[in-house]
Design brief:
Length: 651
């Protein structure tokens, strides 16, 4: 291992790229966060009115192109702020440039206008404004929408996650915040519509330009002008202060309810050899199951199946098969499944659970589009049950929750429902990544309507994308930066990745998932380093442990233990969960923010271990780092950026 000390950005984020600078701008009671290109956290008198307003340019694979900013001017006085800049994006040999002007006033009026064109022409799936409404306290709330015709309609933000577009043909949306502010968002320059972005684990309802019923990708011709404007008007005064005034977040535990689900990991055939080289270390994880991916289109065969089983046996884990079915007609799919079953029957070990998905379902079918040819689900699952006698049969989607919500399986023919997620499909910044944890309880509330009484499993899920349902592939990310649609996302290797994975598991464990699988053993979604074609800042690929190692190892040990839900006096200040063991109560929590956080532990917790930037190097070398609990001098802990805590209260 290298002797040089890793930088703080590598320790936290797995990359030397510094985090985005966020600047707070105020115009009287109106405040925004300006991240150097767009607006976040728009508030009036401290209460959130709009989560974000952005002007985005997306390529033909839905990847957001990162703009280069020039001639930035930011001015503010007591009653007004003003921003202007020029921006340009480039991709696939095409360029697009635009000019932005943003103004905010103490009267609660915010305008954001953009004007752009391309000298080369641009093939794009979306170029224009995106407005994000928050979900907490807004889900289920009334809204008044104005269509492009001028017609006004009373409606509501959906409670269950809407699989398509809950609001269409929009010119304006008006709603009240939980505190009573009146918020009106006027959108000019094109027709807008809304999608329920919780489908992708984004914590927002997204209103975007250009209806999906129109052809995509579409081309902006050279010289064609794109001109749009958002006007936000916020009136009133919230009934109660909504900003946290500081001080410690006081933590309490709810009554025991449910049990900790088994924790698994994913495995791709190309990672099996590297996993076997580190089997002694990986065995210490104690994972319950390994989801083994099999896709005949990628050359997976009897040998790769055998390697999957070998890894599972070496790690002491139950093998699950995740099988892609290539044939799109019923007879061909049944024959393919029968052949796969015969291959598996020859192995030394069978797959306890078999999940199947037609290959066309790995790609998205947008609302209004024609579904591609695929085997009838009921016939596919029946063929799978015949080919794998004694195995539990699962159905759903290997892609995002979105696709599961849009194409729900016939539950009478399967034993469990399954899906996966990724955290950076729409946005790749740190704030959006951690906000996805806020959305997970909304998914938990929606899944029962799909599962219809069946248990559900989730994963293997990670920060990055193992596949891109909306384009050719995820972004390869050879420069190791933060961006949407990353395959290799650097934060998987930082303390932030450990915090996110803890929050992810906790949400689904408390939400009743039958099983949860996180990313993988090695590779872009793994828990330890091996040689890779992509960069791993500071790590040498010799089996060093990523911080997330300690999360997987610690939580896997708690399988079957009664859950004590973690509650905080400050909503969203921490993420975590507790479990009851024979010796006492074990508490896992994280600070999901880059800011230092004071937390007061529940009464009786006497020992703790902390994983943060200062213990990053030790964590990379010591598999049992968080087993080393030390006495706490006070019930109040100061947690640095994204710090993870394991605490214990004896019986």
């Amino acid at each position: 291992m290298t002797h040089s000390d890793p930088s703080r950005t590598v320790r936290l984020y797995g990359t030397e790229e510094p985090p985005a600078e966020e600047r707070v701008l105020n115009a009287g009671p109106l405040s925004v966060l300006f991240d150097g290109a767009n607006l976040r956290d728009v508030r009036m008198h401290g209460e959130e009115a709009i989560r974000a307003i952005s002007f985005v340019v997306r390529d033909k694979d839905w990847a957001t192109l990162i703009p280069k900013i020039a001639d930035l001017i930011v001015q503010q006085d007591g009653d007004r702020f003003w921003i202007s800049y020029r921006a340009g994006v480039a991709g696939n040999g095409e360029t697009f440039g635009y000019e932005v002007v943003i103004e905010g006033s103490a009267a609660g009026v915010l305008t954001y206008s953009a004007r752009g064109k391309t000298p080369t022409g641009l093939l794009t799936n979306r170029t224009g404004f995106v407005v994000l409404h928050p979900i907490e306290g807004v889900s289920g709330a009334p809204a008044t929408i104005t269509h492009t015709s001028g017609e006004r309609v009373e409606t509501r933000f959906p409670v269950e996650i809407d699989p398509v577009q809950p609001m269409m043909d929009l010119r304006e949306i008006a709603h009240r915040t939980p505190g009573g502010l009146e918020v009106t968002c006027l959108m000019e320059g094109d027709a807008f519509e809304m999608e329920d972005q919780r489908n992708w684990t984004d914590a927002s309802y997204k209103t975007y330009v250009r209806p999906l019923a129109l052809p995509w990708p579409y081309r902006i011709e050279p010289g064609e002008v794109v001109q749009q404007k958002i006007t936000l008007t916020v009136k009133g005064f919230p009934r109660a202060p909504s900003r946290w005034a500081g001080g410690a977040a006081v933590l309490t535990l709810g009554e025991a309810e449910g049990t900790m689900p088994p924790l698994g990991i994913g495995l791709q055939p190309e990672d099996a050899s590297a996993a076997l080289r580190h089997v002694e270390t990986l065995h210490q994880l104690g994972v319950a199951h390994i989801i083994c991916h099999h896709d005949p289109r990628r050359g997976h065969d009897a040998e790769s199946l055998a390697r999957h089983v070998e890894v599972a046996a070496a790690l002491g884990a139950q093998p699950w098969l995740e099988a892609v079915v290539e044939h799109v007609n019923d007879a061909g799919a049944a024959a393919e499944i029968d052949f796969l079953g015969k291959l598996v029957a020859k192995l030394d070990r069978r797959f306890a659970t078999v999940l199947v998905s037609p290959a066309p379902d790995l790609k998205c079918t947008l609302p209004g589009s024609v579904w591609p040819a695929a085997p009838a689900p009921a016939k596919l699952y029946a063929a799978t049950r015949t080919a794998f006698p004694g195995s539990r049969i699962g159905g759903g989607m290997f892609s995002f929750f979105t696709e599961l919500n849009r194409k729900r399986p016939p539950t009478e023919t399967i034993d469990l429902v399954t899906f996966t997620t990724a955290a950076i499909f729409h946005a790749g910044d740190d704030r959006s990544l951690m906000e996805t944890l806020e959305c997970l309880p909304h998914i938990v509330r929606t899944v029962p309507a799909i599962a219809r009484g069946l248990p559900y499993s989730v994963g293997p899920s990670a920060i990055g994308l193992r596949d891109n349902p909306y384009g050719e592939a995820p972004v390869a990310n050879p420069t190791n930066i933060r961006q949407a649609v990353n395959f290799n996302d650097p934060r998987q290797r930082g303390v932030m990745g450990a915090a996110w994975n803890l929050g992810y598991f906790a949400a689904f464990a408390e939400g009743g998932a039958e099983a949860v699988a996180l990313g993988g053993a090695v590779g872009p979604f793994g828990v330890l380093s091996v040689p890779t074609p992509f960069p791993q800042s500071w790590f040498e690929g010799k089996g060093e442990l990523y911080p997330v190692w300690h999360i997987v190892r610690g939580l896997a040990k708690l399988k079957g233990r009664p859950i004590r839900p973690l509650r905080s006096s400050v909503a969203g200040a921490v993420r975590g969960i507790a479990a009851v063991t024979e010796k006492g109560t074990e508490l896992w929590l994280c600070n999901p923010s880059p800011n230092t956080l004071e937390v007061r532990l529940p009464e009786g917790f006497t020992t703790a271990a902390i994983l943060d930037a200062s213990s990053f190097v030790a964590a990379s070398r010591q598999p049992d780092l968080l087993d080393r609990l030390t006495p706490v001098e006070t019930q109040t802990l100061s947690l640095e950026s994204y710090a993870v805590v394991r605490a214990f209260r004896p019986v």
